[in-house]
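#dry-run=false #mode=assembly
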Amino acid sequence: MPVPTSPPEVVDEVTLARYPFLPQATSWIRTMAVTHNIDLNELLDGPWMEKARQRARIRLIDSVQSKDGVQVIGGDIHTEEGRLVEAFSFYYARLVMCASEDERLIARWAQAEAARAEQLLIQDSVNLETIARTYVTEIEPVSDLTTGVRASSSMGMRELRQQRSTVWRIGLADFVEICPRITGQRWRLPNVDVEAGWVKLHDERQYASSAKLARLLRERIKSGIEADALEKMSEVTTDLAVRLAEPLGMVRNLMANKASEAIALVGAEESDWPPCMQKIIADLSSGVNVNHFGRLFLASMAATLALPQEACVGFFRGAPDFSEATTSYQVQHVYQHEYTPAGCGKLKVNHNCPVLPGDNRTCDQSWMDHPLKYIRATQRWRRLTAPAEPKPTDSAPDETPSPSPP
Ligand code: SF4
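#status=ok
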C-alpha cells in the first residue's frame, strides 16, 4: 500500500520543528525562511544560522557514531529560535548529504534521523496517530484488552494512561510491505495476529503497541527522508558542493574510521574475503539494512573461517536494528549449528552478490560457484606470488654452500 498522497494537516509549529522531515513541514520551513530572511548564503555562512549549522553537525556526527540515531534532544523548540535551529539544522544536514552524492551515506543519515523519530514517537501519544496517517494508509486504534477502551472523555491522567495503552492495528498490505525490513520473529507474518485484512499490534510487557507502530513508521520515515535527499541530489551545483566540502569531509572521515574499525576487528586476512562478504560488512557498518539471507551468509562465513564470535557480532554493530543480546544469541546459534555458507547462485538470487561481469576477475571464472572457492583461490594466488622465504639451515652463514648452477 503506497504512502498516502494527502497527509493530514499539521499546523502546530512545535510538532513541525520536532519532525522537520514531515512533508507537511516543507511549506512551514519555506515560510520561516521568508519571514526571517534566511537565504542560502545565510544558511551556509551567515552568523544568524551558526547555531543551526552546529546542530546540523551534531545530527551528522550522530548519524555515523551513534547506534541510537540522531540525539533526541536539540534546542528548545518551544521558542521561535529553537524551532529555527531544529528546522534549519535538518535542512542544512540534508544539503550536506545531497552534496555527498553517496547513496550509502544518505541511507545511513536517513536511518539515524528515522531512529530519532522513532524514539520521539514512542513518547508522543498526541502526534502518533497524525504521523502514522502521514505514512500509512490503513491504521487505526482498537480497544485495549487489558485496560478497557481507548480514551474518549476529558483530558487528564486517566486519559493519558489510556492513550499510552492504545492498541493499534495496521492494514495487512502496509505491514507486508514494511515488515521484511525489520529483523526478529515477532515481525514475521506467521507470528502476527491477522484478521479481516488487518494486523493487530499487540501490547507486550516490554514492547507496547505504540512502540511497535513507531518501529514500523521508522521504516517509512527513513524511506521518505532518503527519497527526498536522492531527489534533491541533482539540484546541488558544483559551487554549492564546494561550499559544503568542509562538513562533508568531516562526515566522510568519520565513516572511513568506522569502516576500518569494523574490518580491523578480525585481523589481516580480510583482503582474501569475497566481494559479497565485504559488501555485507561495509553495508552493515554504514547502517544499511542487509536482508536476512545476507546476514545468515555473513555469520556462517565467519563461523567457517573460525573468526571469533565477538568479531562476528561486531560486524552487525552498525545495523539499524542492532541489539547486542539478540545478535549474540543468533550468531551463537549459527556457530553451534555449523551452517554451510550459501553458494554464489543463491547469493545472486537474494541480491547479495555485488559483482557484475567484468568487475572481478576471480568472480568471473567459470568455476566460481562458491565464496569459499574465492577465498581458496586468493589464498593460493597470494602464496604463489609471495617472495620466497629463506630456507632454514644448520650451517653458519659463512658456511652456506653456494647453489649449484642449473
Ligand atoms: S560471484 Fe560469488 S564469490 Fe563473487 S561476489 Fe558474487 S557471490 Fe561472492
